[in-house]
Amino acid sequence: HTQGQGQGQGQVAYVPQQAWIQNATIQNNILFGQPMQGLKYSETLHSCALEPDLEILPGGDQTEIGEKGINLSGGQKQRVSLARAVYQEADVYLLDDPLSAVDSHVGKHIFEKVIGPEGMIRNKTRILVTHGINYLPQCDQIVVMNGGRISEIGSYGELIDADGAFAEFIRVYSGVGEEDGEDAPSVSEYTEYCEENLNLEQSDSHGALDPSVFSDDPETRSRRRAHGQHLEKKRISESSTRDKKERKRHVSKSELKRQLSRQMSSEVGEKKASAEHTDKSTLIKQEKVETGSVHMSVLFAYVRACTYPLSLLTILFYLLTNGASLASNFWLADWSNSNTPENRNQTVTACDSLNSLAQRSGCYLGVYGALGIIQSFLILFAAFSLALSAIFASRTLHNSMLKNILRSPMSFFDTTPLGRILNRFSKDTYIIDEVIPRSLRSFIFTFLSVMATLIVIVVTTPPFLVIIVPLLILYAIIQRFYVATSRQLKRLESTTRSPIYSHFQESVMGVSSIRAYRVQQRFVLQSEEQVDYNQLAYYPSICSNRWLAIRLEFMGNLIILFAALFVVIQRNYQEEIKIRINAGLVGLSISYALQVSHVSFC
């Protein structure tokens, strides 16, 4: 448990022991929001020993790094993290053992070029946590920790003279540390050797001879041979250049055309090579967005996951439920007609054959109640079968997805952000668990309700058949516009949701670095931008639903209008059209027509 307060002035840069790398290019990881300065950037790469790594990577500093730096080694990640801190030019540097993940000779180079008294940040305040005793003599102040407490403070010489626990530790382990630091060649020594060769070539090219060239030691002889080979290549290159110039003077028109053709072919080849180079430097591929209608194979895959028997049973129960509802409403219409004066002496149903009014009412009430009870049980069975089907489908699809993820090669995780995988297992699984069953229930219920309404209206007023065809054409036009738009907006909304999860997960992993660099506001704005970009697809999806609701409401009102209009026409012209009107069925027809306009679509 720690207590206390900390105060500081100036900008702080933090290099954690476990390097935090963003899913971006190496250049963007180093810049970290700062403007590009070529000289400082190159010096930072050299000081942090990143130049050899950039030569190996396919895209150089434009190579995209996967989440958590998955395509970099531990030492490379640590050096990128250190380069980020160095490039910021902060006032205070908190270095949590940054040399632990690099080789000894690379660590020596980094200490000399970055952290040490001659390094890039020599004029800054540096707090270095380290277990490497080789670097201690060059530190201004040493704080020795023992058991979570400060045991000694002082310079290297003061602590050695004190002859305490620190001096004893140095005497015991200094031999091992020095050997580790001296056996391996230093990166700075290799750089000096390269500069010597470069100076040698430059002096020869200007006609000045270095006396060391005539030395007989092995190192100089090897340098002399390399230099001679270089001069020979240069002489051959100059000779071939002169020959080419002479040939160009006497070239014919046909040869010029051939050369132009070869030049164009080489340019095309260079463009292709550049495109391939860009593809190699891009690690994370864009999430593919499907276009067009949903394939029937997708629908059959969901039905298979629900199991065929349960799918058929669910449809059967909903059909029986709607049939029971339709039967109870027709029975209620006959019951209301049986009490009218013109139908009182007619036998329409078995209940009409009873003598007393009480017996007839009891018979109608008993049948109506029985139909209601049957309908209740059918609704219960339909809900159970649909829920069971949804559970089977959700379990099957989730287990299949989990199985594929666990058996995927490591390259899949290199090129797929964790936010994309999290999106599949969170929002998409939620849609399979809850949204699809609810939408499926609404679809079946709405479809059967509309069919029942049309049946009742046609039975009551047969001329309504003339209006069905224009209504179906109008509905097909609306459906063609809405379904294509809504489907693609849903796909885009699902695709743009993955970067939100990725950015949030990345921010949580690097929260200590984000707070140390004091860039919380920038990451909050980036998260808000991801959410806003997602809303660009989500908000139009809601608007398209309202667009559909208005037009379906209009179609429902048309059904009510024509249903009532044909009832009035049939009532006034019964003898001409020779169709007898039934008051109970008319009421049933109008009530069903009213239900259509109140169906909610989501």
Automatic annotation (TrEMBL):
The keyword Transport applies. Residues 1-172 form the ABC transporter domain. Residues 200-284 are annotated as: Disordered. The keyword Nucleotidyltransferase does not apply. Residues 312-597 form the ABC transmembrane type-1 domain. Its EC number is 7.6.2.3. It holds the Pfam family ABC_tran. PROSITE patterns: ABC_TM1F, ABC_TRANSPORTER_1, ABC_TRANSPORTER_2. It catalyses: leukotriene C4(in) + ATP + H2O = leukotriene C4(out) + ADP + phosphate + H(+). It is found in: Endomembrane system. Signal peptide: none annotated. GO terms for molecular function: ABC-type glutathione S-conjugate transporter activity; ATP binding; ATP hydrolysis activity. The chain crosses the membrane at residues 365-393, 440-458, 464-483, 554-573. It is an enzyme of class 7 (translocase). GO terms for cellular component: endomembrane system; membrane. Keywords: ATP-binding, Membrane, Nucleotide-binding, Repeat, Transmembrane, Transmembrane helix, Transport. It comes from the Eukaryota. It is a multi-pass membrane protein. InterPro entries: ABC1_TM_dom (IPR011527), ABC1_TM_sf (IPR036640), ABC_transporter-like_ATP-bd (IPR003439), ABC_transporter-like_CS (IPR017871), ABC_transporter_C-like (IPR050173), P-loop_NTPase (IPR027417). Residues 229-244, 268-284 have a biased composition (Basic and acidic residues). Belongs to the ABC transporter superfamily. ABCC family. Conjugate transporter (TC 3.A.1.208) subfamily. This is ABC-type glutathione-S-conjugate transporter.
